Amino acid sequence: MKVVVTYAGVPAKTKVDDYTPWVTSTNGAIALGEPEIAAWWFPSNDHPRDKATYSMDITVPKGLEAISNGTLRRTTYGKKTDTWSWRTTKPMTTYLAFMAIGDMKITKGVSAKGIPWLNAVTVEKNPTTRRAAADLARTPEVTDWLATQFGPYPFEATGGVVPAGKPGFALENQTRPVYPQEYWTKGPNIGIVVHELAHQWFGNSVSVKNWKDIWLNEGFASWAEWRWEETHGGPSANAAFKEMYDARPASDTKFWNVILTDPGPGDEFAGAVYDRGAMTLQALRNRVGDPAYHSIIRGWAKKHRYGNATVEEFIAYASKQSDEDLRPFFRAWLSTAGKPKPSAELGFPAEMIPKS
């Protein structure tokens, strides 16, 4: 069945609760948002469980670039407008579909593992955009490294976009994350590139079944930053775990009382979902050991590739793969309010466990 919908409007003027994920810039616009954006530019069943492949033809004023997901199939040049045609061949949730229009410099190539990549960075010249371009140039390197951690890269292309507008946040759009310039204001920031590209496995290929399962996205992507540092001359993941634990007193209820199995409306992107989420995974690694842990995360990414999953399914999977009942462990970290007390059962590093 083919359905054709014709409509028009000015998306930037459409707001919900005084907010619009359609961001304009001096010479373009960005369609970028989570958990919602699709309704601002195309009709859909806007839910993570309803995945589809996409073909997008974007017509823009001549001389501007139009970047989207997947592979650039062709660019059709006219007298006053140009049309950029993109194609995604793997299932994608609606909020991961994006569009960035503007005056951008495009670079492209193929990674060492054979993955095509395409980056687009605004032509605005300043120290921030130069640092951003330098980190984005490492996208093929980061993608290939993540594949050694999580299994084969799940999509047909990789890359990144740094537009002229100010979306205020980075987002892991499938195959091509979008990053705001301000993430490089204070210097290089390869961590954000690692985080958003890790989402290609956890969030994009394996997507949440419901938004309450968001820990499956953000916990893994945040832990990937720790793992990158650990394997690239930085502090160990256990050192990052300890620093995070020590920096958050028990009185910090905004951090320790969020229920990660169901953070609730408005708290889907609370700091605890990211940081305590990463702590949970590092604790799991300590609890079951490196071989079992890496088998769990690689197996999980393979088992639910291009599908959807819940936190409960991950707990059951981790328990089965480790041959342990991990429900009490996960209950303490994910669904019990309060700061966990160091113990081997909860996966704390040995040096943090009080000696009897």
TrEMBL record:
Family annotation (Pfam families):
Peptidase_M1, Peptidase_M1_N
- Alphabetically ordered keywords of this record: Hydrolase, Metal-binding, Metalloprotease, Protease, Zinc
Which superkingdom is the protein from? Bacteria
According to UniProt, the reaction catalysed is: Release of an N-terminal amino acid, Xaa-|-Yaa- from a peptide, amide or arylamide. Xaa is preferably Ala, but may be most amino acids including Pro (slow action). When a terminal hydrophobic residue is followed by a prolyl residue, the two may be released as an intact Xaa-Pro dipeptide
* Cofactor(s) named in the record: Zn(2+)
- Top EC class per UniProt? hydrolase
Q: What is its EC number?
A: 3.4.11.2
For this chain, the family text in UniProt reads: Belongs to the peptidase M1 family.
Write down the InterPro entries for this protein, in alphabetical order.
Aminopeptidase_N-like_N, Aminopeptidase_N-like_N_sf, Peptidase_M1, Peptidase_M1_aminopeptidases, Peptidase_M1_dom, Peptidase_M4/M1_CTD_sf
Which ranges carry the Peptidase M1 membrane alanine aminopeptidase domain? 190-333
Question: What protein am I looking at?
Answer: Aminopeptidase N
Q: Where is the Aminopeptidase N-like N-terminal domain?
A: 34-96
